[in-house]
UniProtKB/TrEMBL annotation:
This is Nitric oxide reductase subunit B. It is an enzyme of class 1 (oxidoreductase). Keywords: Membrane, Oxidoreductase, Transmembrane, Transmembrane helix. GO terms for molecular function: cytochrome-c oxidase activity; heme binding; nitric oxide reductase activity. The lineage of its organism: Bacteria, Pseudomonadati, Pseudomonadota, Betaproteobacteria, Neisseriales. GO terms for cellular component: membrane. Coiled coil: none annotated. Pfam families: COX1, NorB_cytochrome_c-like. SUPFAM superfamilies: Cytochrome c oxidase subunit I-like. InterPro entries: Cyt_c_oxase-like_su1_sf (IPR036927), Cyt_C_Oxase_1 (IPR000883), NorB_cytochrome_c-like (IPR054309).
């Protein structure tokens, strides 16, 4: 450890404490997850539905695309309703009307103020306080509620079928006709939606809050933010301000002020003789940008489906490529191409660490990994299509080979395991190059943090395998966010920092000490907030106050290191002027500049917009979440992957020169298109929805009546211009990478 001992101890302490907290509170998630009651029974003792009915409904929901068609408990797609909030509100309204009709012979809206107040007080009491699980594991429901459930359930049975009266509604929700052809499966699906609504309306035992911490906002039964919600939201703001203050002080008083080395007169990496495994990376670069283009074209189709729910400019597409499938492939393609870009960077750097040579069969391993990626992509896409479009998979067969139903982990479990095997193969290829380098003399601290980061990238996709087909949603979300948040926002960030530090050191742009210190400090800063900050996704998924407290507090700290990224962006930009030969690396460096900008804005500003519990209580499931997702996922990890691929291309095809004009247009069009998507459509729609959610409830902000208003539809049409700008820029960028990949340039 030497002179970096304190930094290593800090990093180890951060990892130990944060993972201990993540694990300890994970036990709390398991203990406090909303239960699946054995039975729901009527007051007269008749069985309304069983646990098995609900679990079959969960499987049916997964086979339709799950979170890719509407959302459940706030997580999922934004076009159709949040089924939890929608079912709950419809059930409450039905109960009010049934009660008013039985007692006064009128609809609820026709009653006077006093009559309404009396009935609504009984509504709140029955739903919040009288629908708990008894000692036998059952929940007793009033006869009125049983009738309300049956009435609402029939609506979902018809909606997911082919009833002609709901054709316009299906178009508004971007649902294909006969989304779920089997009527019994549709009935089970309605049972599952009811269970999520029950968990969002029934108080926990010995608590005044529901299993979902009173989410969603529903004034009819006083589902409003809890006291703890408000307190920890205020605390998160205090932690953010304190973190920023201490970081600024530490940055100026504790950072090293050593002079950076004199930049070499020629590119040191250009003198490295390429190994067979490095030469094989041209096809990885091509695959990265091909999947990138597929992803953004699908994204444009998904965006268009929000205005024409079943057609593309009049062309009937929904029966062969419905919204749920297009969105599935859109998100899965993003994971595939971004991961491929990161794997490419690692495989290029590994032989350099190994002294400029490949271990035995390294090139074979690289080629096998490439084939494995193709198999996973093709197989998972075929499974998604078979499940959603052909409706040929159901139950366990769907979960294993079709569609798991969960965002970013949509691929069937079989394909998910194969993908994990691919990551482990990449890790093996990396370690066999890097571990042997520890035997050489000299300081190995930078190598150690780089190796630690590749272990994190290779291993931490695994927690996505820790839930099953019928795992309750709170537990599933715990493990899903280990992948979507911790793996990506934690270990990908550390890997990117360490990889760039290693590359810039070998280029002679930064000193070894600066590269090492930057990697160790960044690792601690990213992980101290990023590991327990995972809990901010679980506020309302069926967890308790400790989860909210940890998520709010630590997710605020995630924003802290992003404050100083302007300095990092300037350093990346200035590197291109450090020496004449650095001009070749201009576009990789400009991509890294974009990463710093979007990390600050997309991950920092837009991320904190929805992170405090009080904010997310009203904004979860709205287009404000999509603002953060687009700006952070592409702006940060997308540009990182593109930057890595462009940099690798500069060395595997050293005589190929990227077209300056096309690269410039491509770069700025992508950034302009991303800004345009946000300011012309996603953000203003999200603001309108937020006002509706705060005033009336989430059910209204996601309803057909609200979302199909003329001005909101006009904003979604307006987004088409920004999408075209973005797609145009991406195609220019991708074309340059493809030309590089297939060029006849023979590297020495």
């Amino acid at each position: 450890m030497g002179q970096y001992k304190k930094l290593w101890y800090t990093l180890m302490c951060v990892l130990t404490l944060t993972f201990a907290l993540l694990g300890y509170l994970g036990v709390e998630v398991y203990r406090q997850a909303p239960p699946f009651p054995e039975q729901y029974v009527s007051a007269s003792g008749q069985t309304v539905m069983t646990k098995d009915d609900i679990l079959k409904g969960q499987s049916a929901w997964q086979s339709t695309g799950g979170m890719e068609l509407g959302s459940v408990l706030g997580h999922g797609a934004y076009q159709a309703p949040d089924w939890t909030a929608d079912f709950l509100h419809r059930e409450l309204v039905a109960w009010l009307d049934l009660t008013a009709q039985a007692e006064h012979g009128k609809k609820f809206d026709d009653l006077d103020v006093a009559q309404k107040a009396t009935i609504q007080a009984r509504l709140k009491q029955e739903y919040r306080e009288q629908s708990g699980v008894d000692a036998s594991g059952n929940v007793k429901l009033s006869d009125t509620r049983v009738k309300a459930i049956a009435q609402v359930s029939q609506y979902y049975v018809d909606l997911y079928g082919d009833k002609a009266e709901l054709n316009q509604t299906r178009e508004s929700f971007a649902m294909k006709t006969n989304t779920l052809p089997d009527e019994q499966a549709r009935k089970h699906l309605a049972n599952f939606f009811f269970w999520t609504a029950w968990s969002a309306s029934a108080n926990r035992p010995d608590s005044v809050a529901t299993y979902t911490n009173n989410w969603p906002h529903e004034p009819l039964i006083d589902n409003v933010p809890t006291t703890e919600n408000v307190m920890w939201s205020l605390a998160s703001i205090v932690f953010l301000l304190a973190g920023v203050g201490f970081l600024v002080w530490g940055y100026h008083f504790m950072r090293s002020h050593d002079d950076e080395p004199k930049v070499p007169e020629s590119d040191p990496l250009s003198k490295v003789v390429l190994t067979p495994s490095q030469k094989a990376l041209w096809k990885y670069a091509a695959l990265t940008v091909i999947l990138f283009i597929v992803q953004i074209l699908l994204g444009g189709l998904v965006a268009h489906y929000t205005v024409e729910g079943q057609t593309f400019f009049g062309i009937e597409l929904s029966q062969i490529l419905p919204y749920s499938l297009a969105r599935t492939w859109h998100l899965q393609s993003a994971l595939f191409w971004i991961a491929t870009g990161f794997l490419t960077a690692g495989l290029f750097v590994a032989p350099i660490i190994n002294g400029g040579k490949d271990p035995k069969f390294q090139a074979l391993g690289v080629n096998l990994l490439y084939i494995a990626l193709f198999i996973v992509v093709a197989g998972s896409y075929a499974g998604n299509f078979t499940s959603i479009v052909l409706n040929k998979l159901s139950g366990s067969a769907n979960f294993w080979f079709g569609h798991q139903g969960y965002e970013y982990l949509d691929l069937g479990r079989f394909w998910q395991i194969l993908l994990y095997v691919g990551f482990l193969l990449w890790l093996f290829l990396m370690l066999r190059c890097t571990v042997s380098a520890f035997k050489n003399g000299g300081d190995k601290n930078l190598l150690a943090i780089f190796v630690a980061s590749i272990v994190g990238v290779g291993m931490f996709y695994g927690p996505g395998l820790f839930y099953g087909e019928h795992t309750t949603l709170a537990v599933m979300e715990y493990w899903r966010w280990w992948v979507v948040h911790l793996w990506v926002e934690g270990f990908f960030e550390v890997f990117a920092t360490a990889a760039l530090a290693f590359i810039f050191y070998n280029l002679g742009l930064v000193s070894y000490k600066s590269a090492t210190v930057a990697s160790l400090v960044a690792g601690s800063l990213f992980l101290v907030g990023g590991v327990p900050g995972t809990f901010h996704h679980l506020y309302f998924s069926g967890t308790t106050t400790p989860i909210m407290a940890a998520g709010a507090s630590f997710s605020a700290l995630e924003v802290v290191p992003l404050i100083l990224l302007g300095h990092e962006a300037y350093e990346h930009w200035s590197h291109q002027h450090a020496a004449p030969w650095m001009k070749r690396l201009r576009w990789p460096l400009m991509s890294f500049v974009a990463v710093a900008f979007w990390n600050m804005l997309g991950a920092g500003v837009f991320g904190f917009l929805i992170n405090p519990p009080i904010s997310l209580f009203y904004l979860q499931g709205l287009n404000t979440t999509a603002v953060h997702a687009h700006a952070a996922l592409f702006g940060v990890y997308g540009f990182l992957a593109l930057g890595f691929v462009l940099m690798v291309g500069c060395y595997i095809k050293p005589h190929y020169t990227y077209d300056e004009k096309q690269m410039s247009w491509g770069f700025w069009l992508m950034n302009a298109g991303l800004v345009g998507m946000i300011i012309s459509s996603l953000l203003p729609i999200g603001v309108y929805q937020a006002a509706a959610s705060i005033t009336h409830g989430l059910w209204y902000a996601r309803s057909e009546a609200f979302m199909q208003q003329g001005h909101l539809e006009a904003l979604r049409w307006l987004r088409t211009l920004s999408d075209l700008v973005f797609i145009g820029g991406a195609c220019l960028f991708a074309w340059q990478v493809i030309k590089m990949s297939i060029s006849k340039d023979k590297a020495a």
